[in-house]
Specification:
This protein is α+β, with helices and mostly antiparallel strands. Helix content is 41%, strand content 21%. The chain has helices at residues 21-44, 49-71, 137-155, 162-165; strands at 9-13, 75-80, 85-90, 96-101, 107-109, 120-124, 127-131. The strands form 2 sheets. The protein has a 4-stranded antiparallel β-sheet, with helices on one face. The protein has a 3-stranded antiparallel β-sheet with strand order 5-6-7, covered by helices on one side. The protein is elongated.
Length: 172
């Protein structure tokens, strides 16, 4: 992570995977056992080519789970300082992308209450970036609220400034 000013807000967003590595081994073992038993039954009645198709099914399920776990290694970091909001996205192949936004012009957009299709969008100067697409809608809303509150605190004038003492300006 970059060094510099102390962050006002920092979050790391990661996709959730409900199946642990141990659970994956147990599930794949159960699938393989069922496929082997069913394939063996077909082979014993003379339909031995079916046995290979059950093996192919097990292989495809394995490949699908591995692809899912690979995409689960993706993460995004959001770091808000006085000068910038930096969003960094690291993909499964360690592909690294980065965006910077000026916080005083930044809008955080999110449906409230969230729908399944709701997106957490950062918008500024005609640029838009969707973050946390892999999160559940409620989690995206939680991030949007926390980031919005941090931006609100940043935009407030310091306690001793004239703007904080008299927001209406001088009286006539």
């Amino acid at each position: 992570m970059e060094t510099g000013p102390t962050p006002i807000f920092a979050a790391t967003l990661e996709p959730h995977r409900s199946l642990s590595p141990r659970g994956f081994v147990v599930l794949m073992s159960a699938i393989a056992a069922v496929a082997f038993g069913a394939g063996l039954a077909f082979a014993l009645v003379g339909a031995w080519p079916v046995f290979g198709f059950f093996g192919l099914d097990v292989l495809l399920i394995y490949v699908a789970f591995k692809a899912s776990y690979r995409s689960g290694r993706m993460y995004e970091t959001l770091r808000l300082t006085e000068n910038a909001l930096t969003v960094e996205r690291v993909g499964p192949g360690k592909r690294h992308l980065s965006w910077r936004f000026q916080p005083y012009w930044l809008r955080v957009e999110m449906d409230d209450p969230p729908e399944h299709e709701s997106q957490l969008t950062l918008a500024s100067h005609g640029r838009r970036l969707v973050v946390g697409a892999f999160l559940a809608p409620e989690e995206r809303l939680e991030v949007a609220r926390a980031l919005g509150a941090a931006l609100g605190r940043l935009r407030q004038p310091p306690a001793g400034s004239l703007a904080a003492q008299d927001p209406g300006g001088p009286a006539n």
